[in-house]
Amino acid sequence: MQDKQLLTLPGPTPVPARVLQAMGKHPIGHRSGDYSKIQEEVTEHLNWLHQTEHNVQALTVSGTGAMEAGIINFLQKGDRVLVGCNGKFGDRWAEVAEAYDLNVEKIEAEWGKPLDPSEFQAKLEADSEKQIKAVIVTHSETSTGVLNDLESINKAVKNHGEALIIVDAVTSIGATSVPIDEWGLDVVASGSQKGYMIPPGLGFVAVSPKAWEAYKTANLPRYYLDLGKYRKSTEKNSTPFTPPINLVFGLLEALRMMREEGRDNIFTRHQRLTQATRAAAKALGLTTFAPDGNASNAVTAVMPSTVEAEQIRSTMNKKFNIALAGGQNHLKGKIFRIGHLGFISERDTLTVIAALEATLKELGYSNFTPGSGVNAAAEVFAN
Questions:
Q1: How many angstroms separate the CA atoms of 75 and 72, rounded?
Q2: What is this structure's pTM?
């Protein structure tokens, strides 16, 4: 049956009908009063979601563009930065920083393992001359399903006093609580095709007053990604460049849906989906890649042993029209990833687990009792 695909990826994620309908409206002028009203409401909702009193900036970019903007607007050429690398996206931010001639020091962990906050603490405490200007951390490492201990790493940064903390929250905003003002996070970037429940094309950057002070002396090249331009326009309920108007229509409707559900309810729902998915995988005799204490609320990475990950993905897609994500880099073919981010419900998760059981059976995998995965997930949802 056509048009029945279920996206269970860490992005793009399913888009609600209300959002699709909103995006189907005829576009309006982005310099009109009507658009300004939309921009004003969007900004208010974004600030609510990010738990900040300071305006969140919206850019027409992907999550990578938002992170690049977050890095280049607040640093100077040659600045010493610490970058946490325990997956594909941590590695990417190191590459971005190196591309702008920053002095990059990596704090690494094996893929599938969380970053060790004590390693950041040791580096920062040893920096008596305050040469470290930023710490760049991926909160939810999408490539492995690991949630890094942002709160503890941030405490070490705050004790340092000088360094900024720059956070990739691309798959944690909208799935996990990221209390920006309470923790004093300086730069937090995210992307629209994740927890926001809309298609790709918009990136978001939250900026602290401390980071805006650093902006004044930053000298890395920027123009389209110059956040100062966005700040001035956002204050006037406008944009510095042409926005994707219909995507903004969708964003507004998605944010309204999130307000209706409630921020804490959103976080609780994602946590339950994560617990159910992990419990089901274990009940099926499969290995969850990330440790229980550091599991992302956005995606669960699973490492099968006696059946190939790509066979599972292919069969799930062809037979049940369910899209799972594969492994990246050296994990390609070794893991598959089940997304439970954004517009995903308990029913969706139960559907995926049931289809996974049928897929495993078809591929000759028998290290489980039929129905055990669904039952494990249902037990989580019953509590």
A1: 6
A2: 0.96
